[in-house]
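Check out a protein:
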Amino acid sequence: MQKKLIIFSLFLFTLLIPSADALRFSDDALLPTWAVDAVDAVQEEKIMTGFGDNTFRPDQVLNRAEALVILFRLKRIDLAEAGATGDTKFKDVPLDAWFAKAVEEAVNQEWITGFPDGTFRPGQNLNRAEWATLIMRAFSLEREENPGYTDVPSKAWFSKPIFTLAANDLIRTKSSKFNPSDPVDRADAAWVAAKILRKPRLLGTSSSNDFGSYAQRVDSRRVAIKPRDFNPNMQGYDIETKQVSMNVVPKEDEVLVRSDSDWVDMGTIRISNTLDDRVELHSMELKLLFEKTNIGPAGSFQFRMRGMGIDKEVAVGRTGNIFLAGIGTAGGVLIGAGEELVVRGYLKPQDANQFYSAEGYGKLSLFQATGSMISTFQKENPDRNGTYRNAPIKFVDREFTKILFRP
């Protein structure tokens, strides 16, 4: 009897241990490998807690309002206790906006000054140079060293913040370029935030840095935490985010693919450009997965993308990867400001291959894309270098039509 009780207790104990494979968010599979531990840390410390629909959205570009909220959470500053009322004097920051107090306190802390036209532009995407500047000011970083970036002139307005981040080990990638005009996405922001959590000296909780744990827990510090992460549409104020939106529109019914099928229509991708500038689309990555490994041709499938100046055909890799580079006929396709590009995806088994005998279902998903803005960045900011920036891309829906393969 005692032996049975011990076995039952051990069984019950194992049920209480969370599974190592449990998803943090519903889009957990989209997290880059290098960001997994960082997202764990910022979620646990309530710095970046995800959205109300249980997604983290790692590739969503950070805007100016969101960046300020992250920094105040990192510094454990209670905005109400600091006396912030939300009165910022910026004409595009309503008094009752969820980020108004953060903007007001950021002005008081001299992190930001706003634009000459009296705006703060809370929904404007943040680039790496601006992100570095905010971090340097927020944490009063002084020590700097030039890591030898070829795209960061020593006299540029952003050189000191970038060199300061490098000296404090707050830059993830090690290369000859920093890419100051590239946007900062939520995965990047999580990595930097987690790195700061491991540096008690920056948080003001120690005179030295402890790299053995992610955060020092200090009960005496108040933490301003919202029930949900900053999502403008859920906070009562809609910020227009200018970006490139990619939306896969599947067909209503599943499609049948046979071993002798020609090109099978998988649905469309609607690519909308709400930016003020033209966007040149460079590449797209997709993933084809089946429920079993013995479904389909022993070789590979072929994928084709067609529509509005695009006609590209590639082989699907053995792991299901699909990579389309140089999408347009001249190495890229242009999408004008305010315009929409509609392309259609097709799939067929590769000819002259042996086929497995199993029948089963599969799915085709849009995974990633890259593009550049041919922008007014230099015209609006004559003291900054460069007229090309990576285009911020948001994926609305990724799944194509469900596939039934029948040999």
About this structure: Confidence is low (pLDDT under 50) at residues 3-23, 205-228, 232-239, 376-387. Residues 2-16 form the longest helix (15 residues). The chain has nine helices and 13 strands. The two ends are 56 Å apart (CA to CA).
